[in-house]
């Protein structure tokens, strides 16, 4: 069993079934559906990050693979400030993997990381 | 069945505090330096958590280092796992010019 990063990447990017905003070839749909054309709002950002990670997890579960998942989401107001993210993992490189999706609009940046860890049943 | 030895969250909290503090205490935000530091810190934390020798746990370390301006941000995560055996540790460090967040996720290899 090999972790399919493209599949996970597409989940986060492409799912937009009942969402209001228009698709375009390079948009990231789970993120787009939650953040879309909104402006950064400190009062709402908590529920936005929760919605993004929960929807991503739901769609990852639907892949039906025997994996545990960790999904991280960072949403930051665009102000010119810098942000660096790094990760280091101790796992089985033949079965486990990660993918990252970056998204932005006029007022905010969003970074979603997915880590998938295999289990043996 | 479940893990023979539970993951020591408190010991890992101490590791995070120690590593972030020693690397970043007097460090001002500089883009290239902080980019390298994020990677180095993630590697060092992973190595020290491995040294705790907790059997059958896979480890994911995520670090964020950002500039302290007037901007607002939110970082969150959710995990699909077994809460009886899997857990995480998290620590935030701030000085006058930057902030850093380190998370360690420990996943039991069933």
From TrEMBL, chain B:
Secretion signal, residue range per the UniProt entry: none
Pfam annotation, one family: Tctex-1
Entry GO MF terms: dynein intermediate chain binding
Single GO biological process annotation from the record: microtubule-based movement
Annotated TM spans: none
Gene Ontology CC: cytoplasm; cytoplasmic dynein complex
The protein, known as: Tctex1 domain-containing protein 1-A
């Amino acid at each position: 069993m090999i972790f399919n990063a493209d599949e996970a990447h597409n989940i986060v990017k492409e799912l937009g079934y009942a969402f209001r905003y228009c698709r375009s070839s390079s948009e990231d749909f789970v993120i787009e559906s939650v953040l879309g054309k909104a402006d950064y709002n400190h009062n709402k950002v908590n529920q936005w990050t929760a919605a993004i990670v929960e929807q991503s997890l739901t769609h990852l579960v639907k892949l039906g693979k025997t994996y545990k998942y960790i999904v991280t989401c960072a949403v930051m107001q665009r102000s010119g400030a810098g942000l660096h993210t790094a990760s280091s993992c101790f796992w089985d490189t033949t079965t486990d993997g990660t993918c990252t999706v970056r998204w932005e609009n006029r007022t905010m940046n969003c970074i979603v990381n997915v880590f998938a860890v295999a289990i043996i049943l | 069945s479940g893990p023979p030895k539970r993951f020591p969250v408190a010991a890992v909290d101490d590791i995070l505090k120690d590593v972030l503090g020693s690397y970043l205490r007097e460090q001002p935000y500089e883009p290239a330096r902080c980019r390298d530091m994020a990677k180095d810190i993630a590697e060092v934390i992973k190595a020290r958590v491995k040294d705790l020798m907790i059997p059958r746990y896979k480890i994911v370390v995520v670090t964020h280092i950002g500039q302290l301006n007037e901007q607002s941000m939110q970082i969150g995560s959710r995990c699909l796992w077994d809460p009886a055996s899997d857990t995480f540790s998290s620590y935030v460090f701030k000085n006058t010019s930057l902030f850093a967040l380190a998370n360690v996720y420990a996943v039991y290899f069933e």
